[in-house]
Amino acid sequence: MTTYVLRRLVLMVPVAFLVTIGVFMLIHLTPGDPALILLGEDRSPQAIAAIHQQLGLDKPLYVQYLIWLGHIVHGDLGRSITTHQPVTTAIGERLPATLELGAVALIWSLLVAIPLGTIAAVRRGSLADHLATGLAVGGVSIPNFFIGIVLIFFLSVTLRLFPFGGYVPFNQDPFENLRHVILPAIALGTAGAAINMRFTRSSMIEVLNQDYIRTARAKGAPWRRVVFIHALKNALIPVVTIVGLQIGGIIEGAVVTETVFTWPGVGRLAVESIFNRDYTVVQGIVLLAAFSYLIANLLVDLVYGWLDPRISFT
Amino acid sequence: MESDSAGSVLLLWRRFRRERLALVGTGFIVLLVLLAVFAPILPLRDPNHGYYELLPLDGRPIAPGSVFWLGSDPNGRDLFSRLIWGARISLFIGFIANGMALVVGVIVGTVAAYFGKWVDMILMRFTDVMMAFPVLLFSIALIAILQRGGNVLVIAAVIALFYWTAVARIVRGQVLSLKEVEFIEAARSSGGAPRHILFRHILPHLVPVIIVYGTIGIATSISTESILSFIGIGVQPPTSDWGKMVSDGQSYMFLAPWLVIFPGLMILLTVLAFNLISDGLRDALDPRHRSLVKRVVGGFSAGGQALVTSPRTPVEAESA
Question: Which residues of chain B from 12 to 41 reach within 8 Å of chain A, CB to CB?
Answer without folding.
Answer: none
